[in-house]
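Honest question from a wet-lab person: if I give you the sequences of every part of a complex, can you actually get the arrangement of the whole thing, not just the pieces? Trying it with mine:
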Amino acid sequence: MTDIDSSVSPPAALAERDDAITIDELRLATRNHGMPLEVLDLDVTPPGLHYVLVHYDIPLVDPATWTLEVDGHVDTPLSLTAADLDTLPAASARVTLECAGNGRARTSPRPLSQPWLDEAVGTASWSGVRLDAILERAGVLPGAVDVVFTGADHGVERGVEQDYQRALSVEEIDRGEAFLATSMNGVPLPPQHGAPLRLVVPGWYGMAHVKWLTRITVLDHAFDGFQNATAYRIKTDPDDPGVPVTRIEPRALIRPPGFPDFQTRTRVVDAGPVTLSGRAWSGHAPIERVEVSTDDGTTWSDAEVEPAGTDPYAWRRWTARWDAEPGRTVLRVRATDASGRSQPLEQQWNRQAMANSHAQAVPVLVRG
Amino acid sequence: MTDIDSSVSPPAALAERDDAITIDELRLATRNHGMPLEVLDLDVTPPGLHYVLVHYDIPLVDPATWTLEVDGHVDTPLSLTAADLDTLPAASARVTLECAGNGRARTSPRPLSQPWLDEAVGTASWSGVRLDAILERAGVLPGAVDVVFTGADHGVERGVEQDYQRALSVEEIDRGEAFLATSMNGVPLPPQHGAPLRLVVPGWYGMAHVKWLTRITVLDHAFDGFQNATAYRIKTDPDDPGVPVTRIEPRALIRPPGFPDFQTRTRVVDAGPVTLSGRAWSGHAPIERVEVSTDDGTTWSDAEVEPAGTDPYAWRRWTARWDAEPGRTVLRVRATDASGRSQPLEQQWNRQAMANSHAQAVPVLVRG
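Yes, you can. This is the full assembly:
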């Protein structure tokens, strides 16, 4: 058996130059895609506009032969078909998903991975079945610690061949928020969002929402798989075990005003009164405050934030008035949630650029 | 009025280094997206997997207030609503669309623009109404030369502020192939594919298929707008007027076999018999031959190509057998159409990297 060596599957590394995106990063960027920020105008993001991050290939799963296995530290292992899912109690939520690597390409030095700027986000209405109902039917035994979710996507990453797997703790599942989705925005899941079944963990970064689910395994010990123990960690150096990436840090984004230049995406705005708008969200606690700066962070004023709706993990719209005067400027925005978490204005660097929520900057030319 | 100067909207330029993608290019790559090549398994590409290239912002058009104006060198200018479209004769086709800039990021020196590798393609079933029926109703006057299609998307590009506009000649329209689409794959157009109405010009590169149509204008002279006269041209230097980009050059793509590494996307395949497959298409003439090389172009053998279907401008599936032996290799594929056009193995460089159809290369590790 030929080893999958580091020429095929290299170790984690940092970019040599801030302004030189590598071909490896480009290969990821042409496959995966962000949400074009003008789509912040929509409450619910359609497929093709909602961000997508896929580690390996998108598996095209045949729902007619697909099964979900439930095994491990349970009383009664299960093998559920798509028809079996229809007999289970329903669950649904409108949820803002964000990639844990959002903002990575704006950090310095930049870790080599999917090079997101600000756009790895989207909000969808997910619906499906209750996770606790499935676990109750299988009968989780005393002493359960972690629950591992396995997807049908297979690949190699930093030399480790794997099916994509992530675990959640039994405590987290007992909060009763995580569920299994069979549909997105009222229609069956599209292939790139995990058809026929994905996990949804409201409030958590995207890596937790395992797509193309094939297996749920209850463990009586902590899971030490690659995506929990190595990949999605906040580390300061390669040997640092780090701390796990979990819930989404607060973030606000501006719907870029005016119109763009094709190449630089700089915005052109006519002078005069402008209504700025955007969305804000947090996986920790409700958004409490959104502040906007129209002078690149020198002064700030409060935006108006729409009241919280029925879905605590869906973004909320904000608006602010701006009297735009001719010249160049940079718009910025930052959110604060009820837990006291806020967005830093500068990067908080970590080795894999995870959960880096430093405030967006939108360069604008105001013309008189 | 403040000029939109070259710091906001720079002139066309070439990259300094082949291996250093700029931040401007990355901004485009995180918005626009290609088709993940494993989706070559599907005959019809769903939204979110079909490639998307949007020059400016995606306009969110309200179909309730939207109208299509038909004016210019006509007897009776029209203003059509969405309901009016329902009274017109229907048209539909399954069509492979490809961006004229596909392959750009594999050319050297690389023009700074959307940095596609091989993936700017997709095949959808488009349906809507006949274009000739609308033009007949308006009554095109004698002496008509070009027909201009205007979209709702507005921006600035190389210093030229514009609504996106492209013209087709009256001769091209008289072929009877171009039509106006209101739906994609059986459902209303998604926002990013031109809702509520787009032009479809089967066989042509994507720039011709104007999205978010608001106006059709008949001219008694040749159109000299930016996207026809400047942008989509095959030029050898910046001052060369060049020749227009029109129909799609033949291309075949391989569905990458095995599984990928996350970062390098190198494929890992187990030794033994492998069925390679993919798709091939041309906008000029039916595909006549697909050849595959499993030794980086040293030797070639013919693939089996599925018979032509009823849609002359939809891709066709091909398959080939490969006895994979352990080690590193590069797979390549090239298509030839009935007009005698074929894919070069090396780039045929031009100043904007348009219509560059040089053959794909898929690096593979075969393990024993």
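Two things worth pointing out. DSSP finds five helices and 22 strands in chain A. The helical segments of chain A are 23-31, 82-85, 131-138, 170-174, 226-231.
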